[in-house]
Design a protein that fits this description.
158 residues; alpha+beta; GMP Synthetase, Chain A, domain 3; two-stranded antiparallel sheet; 8 strands; 23% helix; 35% strand; globular
């Protein structure tokens, strides 16, 4: 295999910033021992004042063990002034949209990497349906993504 801009062949092969050898070793370990794939993520939330609250994430359970992150991550949530807040952070719906977009983007990048598809640029926009906020039991989310890649047209995301 000839190295390209995004593939390094020294210690670990990489595509789109994903360590392919590590990813495939993880996939194969889970195939051999499915309980390794059971993950439990956790977060602790503290009310600050008014509509402002802060969530911290220190670690998770995966591969049959508790694993600490390299650092504690904090995320502030609040509401804009029009919703009686002081705009101390993205509101909970925006955090949810971030979580969904991040999950889809991470999955797209990993799947592309495994297939040898180099992604040059990937951007998405998520918008919930207005029905989400009117008591509807059905939530609709429209998502638009834009990907730039050298992949053949049939391999590109739509």
């Amino acid at each position: 295999m000839t190295p390209t801009k995004n593939i390094e062949t020294t210690m670990s092969r990489r595509m789109n910033g994903v360590e392919l050898d590590k990813l495939m070793a993880t996939v194969n370990a889970i195939k051999a021992e499915p309980e390794l794939g059971a993950c439990r993520f956790r977060a602790r939330n503290t009310w600050m004042t008014g509509n402002h609250n802060r969530t911290s994430v220190k670690g998770f359970y995966g591969a049959k063990q508790d694993i600490d992150h390299k650092q504690t991550f904090t995320m502030d949530a609040g509401e804009p002034a029009i919703l009686a807040g002081n705009d101390e952070g993205a509101n909970p719906v925006e955090h949810l949209l971030h979580a969904l977009a991040s999950c889809l983007t991470t999955s797209m990048v990993a799947h592309a990497a495994v297939r040898g598809i180099e992604i040059e640029e990937l951007e998405s926009e998520s918008k919930p349906s207005p029905k989400m906020f009117r008591g509807s039991r059905t939530w609709r989310l429209s998502r638009r993504s834009s990907t730039r890649s050298r992949a053949a047209p049939m391999c590109r995301s739509r």
